[in-house]
Design a protein that fits this description.
single chain; mainly alpha; globular; disordered C terminus; transmembrane helix; EmrE-like
Length: 294
């Protein structure tokens, strides 16, 4: 098995774990508050990643810490919005709405970086937004509060993607990734004190399983494997694999929480997925290359 195939398999496993995160967030919120969950999740991730790469972390410089604080704050906003959102919407909806980050990246790039949006990406944006309408709007054309918070999470994540691209050029990306996890946990802990939330540990086995899974698999291992694997595969493969995250989220929400889609929601989910895929991947190039290789 070549390195690209191994990298693709590892990223599929990461995407599966990220798909489960929405279910685990709902489970964890059964016994602890949202800010506590964010602090615990990323605190566990930071400690584990720090132990695994402590020799490398000893070489960290001030610039990396400063950039880690900036990215950590944005990532804190991402997961605060998503965690509060998941508390009042379905895990399935959350997964598809957060995938809008892919759509928001070119929109923000066009607004602030003056980058043009091509016809393919524009069509993808239209399909995804149409799908979100099917998923979230009720008969009075009102949107659920949890769905709105997940949209803010997607917008924050798009901001994180753009800022990360500019900050990782002159620093050790792995050290930066670990440092940012620590700052997310710190900001979550500070917020829990400001919000007068009692800082507590989970009180049930299910909540402990959820928190440890979020910290170990969805955060520490997930972010590390993503960083390593992307060196050995193509952007097209990466985009296609990561686009499956909301599908896995819906599958696990059905299997573990018993959530089911209505016909309207199925249509919305299909439109969102089509829009995300169209925005990320140039299908003409994929099929043209395949035709050439045959």
């Amino acid at each position: 098995m070549n390195m690209q195939r191994r990298a693709d398999i590892m990223m599929i496993l990461v995407t599966v774990s990220w798909g489960t995160s929405y279910v685990f967030m709902k489970m964890g919120l059964g016994s602890i508050e949202a800010f506590n969950l964010v602090a615990l999740r990323f605190g566990i991730a930071f400690l584990l990643a720090g132990l695994l790469f402590y020799k490398r972390l000893r070489k960290v410089d001030f610039k990396t810490v400063k950039y880690g604080m900036i990215l950590g704050f944005i990532l804190y906003l991402v997961f605060t919005f998503i965690t509060f959102g998941v508390n009042t919407t379905s895990a399935s909806n959350a997964g598809f709405i957060v995938s809008l980050a892919v759509i928001f990246v070119p929109v923000l790039s066009a607004l602030f970086l003056k980058q043009k949006i091509g016809p393919r990406v524009f069509t993808g944006i239209f399909l995804a937004l149409l799908g979100i309408g099917f998923l979230t709007l009720n008969s009075q054309l009102q949107i659920n509060q949890g769905d709105a918070l997940c949209m803010l999470g997607a917008l924050s994540y798009a901001t994180y993607i753009i800022v990360t691209g500019s900050l990782t050029k002159n620093v050790d990306s792995l050290n930066l990734g670990i440092i940012q996890l620590g700052f997310v946990s710190l900001f979550g802990l500070i917020s829990s004190f400001i919000a007068a939330e009692p800082t507590v540990l989970p009180t049930s086995t299910a909540s402990w399983i959820a928190i440890l899974s979020l910290g170990i698999f969805c955060s520490a291992i997930g972010f590390t494997i993503q960083t390593i694997s992307q060196k050995y595969t193509t952007p097209t493969n990466t985009g296609l694999i990561f686009s499956l995250e909301p599908v896995f989220a819906a599958v696990f929400a059905f299997l573990m929480l018993g959530e089911e889609f209505t016909t309207k929601a199925y249509i919305g989910a299909a439109l969102v997925l089509a829009g995300v895929l169209l925005s990320r991947i140039d299908m003409k190039k994929v099929f043209f290359k395949r035709g050439q290789s045959v």
